[in-house]
Amino acid sequence: MKIAVLGYGTVGKGVDRIISERVSGVEVSRILELPDRLTDPRMTSDYAQIVEDDDIKVVVECMGGLEPAHTFILDALAKGKSVVTSNKAVVAAYFDEFVRQANATDASLLIEASVGGGIPWIASIEKVRRIDEVTSFSGIMNGTTNFIVDGMVKEGADFDQVLAEAQALGYAERDPSADIDGVDVRNKTIITVGVAFDTACEKDIPTTGIRTLAKGDLDALRAMGRGVKLLGRGVQRDGGYAAAVEPVAVPIESLEANVPSNFNLISLDATTVGPLKFYGQGAGMLPTGNAMVQDVLDFAAGLRPHYDFSRGLEWRPELLTSDYVFRTKARLDGAEPFCEGMVLVRGLSAVRAREVFEYATSVDATSFMAALPQEG
Ligand SMILES: NC(=O)C1=CN([C@@H]2O[C@H](COP(=O)(O)OP(=O)(O)OC[C@H]3O[C@@H](n4cnc5c(N)ncnc54)[C@H](OP(=O)(O)O)[C@@H]3O)[C@@H](O)[C@H]2O)C=CC1
Ligand SMILES: N[C@@H](CC=O)C(=O)O
């Protein structure tokens, strides 16, 4: 089977390498590259040479960004070619449109690499959904921020220093503020809501990253038996759903608190199977390339995911409610002392907590916030 790779960066090179070294029966016959870098006979900078080629059955998009990725994916699907993509930004923004186009031409959209790097998260949700309702999910979905927090905790490293390391290792987004400010996890959470809850997710879910996390916050929370992790979360109940991305002060002995390096740990809860946890490298050339090649092989084997967002669950932010800790110079209503430098505000929805955090940040730009879920 002939396939084309769009974008020959970290992930595109990983896909090409895994196929050439480990997979028979699949050939990367074309690579879309920028005009000044056509160093391989398979490379072209003209997308028409790929999308008009009837021998190419699958287009593997790993350019990143919204355009031209959005247009190229739609063109490929409209021509009946199936698309494998690692580009969570474009899937989160256009999931519904891609699914409608894929269904119209009987093409497939395969998105395993868009959430959790090398972890078979999307495929596992699809398997669980054959029998169960997924009632909630929660997890570390960003390798870069986990790498940063882990480096700060274990090596006492400076935030900017560990971020530079994550960039050098190919974990970070082109603009790493997408990692640090939670936008990357928001995209992955939106995609997970779509796959797990059969619902086109609200795009404006409350999103807070770890930009203002300081070593002192980690020390203060550790003294209270907590570690800090950036989590994407979603829950559905009684025809409604909620989702959020925010730092969470997890119990220090929990699996989440102990996830090292660029690893991700994502959990779900479902009707009859109960809780499941998925652990692996959430970023990097070979883990992510592996997830894309798995999608290509699934397609070749006739395994075709089918998405349907007709269910229309209602957006109900109050379904995600917990206590929150804040480090801020702003005075917050209902705040009570929590630990060195931090106050506690009880019973906020994630949407309300984000509003309180925006107020705190308007007074004190260095403010930090974390959800404080009940233990047990
Ligand atoms: N790196 C990772 O660990 C993971 C990445 N992803 C996602 O995978 C995608 C790719 O990531 P990554 O490989 O890290 O990114 P890179 O920036 O390393 O690679 C993207 C490549 O595509 C090229 N490119 C951009 N636009 C075009 C175009 N129009 N035509 C041809 N080539 C183009 C870029 O060139 P140039 O640099 O010159 O612009 C670059 O070489 C992103 O969506 C990312 O979010 C998902 C999971 C993990
Ligand atoms: N920048 C992302 C890459 C994978 O999705 C991350 O760090 O997780």
Automatic annotation (TrEMBL):
It holds the Pfam family NAD_binding_3. One of its GO terms (molecular function) is NADP binding. Keywords: Amino-acid biosynthesis, Methionine biosynthesis, NADP, Oxidoreductase, Sodium, Threonine biosynthesis. It catalyses: L-homoserine + NADP(+) = L-aspartate 4-semialdehyde + NADPH + H(+); L-homoserine + NAD(+) = L-aspartate 4-semialdehyde + NADH + H(+). NADPH binds at K88. Pathway: Amino-acid biosynthesis; L-threonine biosynthesis; L-threonine from L-aspartate: step 3/5; Amino-acid biosynthesis; L-methionine biosynthesis via de novo pathway; L-homoserine from L-aspartate: step 3/3. SUPFAM superfamilies: Glyceraldehyde-3-phosphate dehydrogenase-like, C-terminal domain (SSF55347), NAD(P)-binding Rossmann-fold domains (SSF51735). InterPro entries: Asp/hSer_DH_NAD-bd, HDH_cat, HDH_CS, HDH_short, NAD(P)-bd_dom_sf. Its EC number is 1.1.1.3. L-homoserine binds at E173. Its cofactor is a metal cation. NADP(+) binds at G7, Y8, G9, T10, V11, G12. Residues 7-111 form the Aspartate/homoserine dehydrogenase NAD-binding domain. NCBIfam families: PRK06349.1 (NF004976). Belongs to the homoserine dehydrogenase family. This is Homoserine dehydrogenase. It comes from Parafannyhessea umbonata.
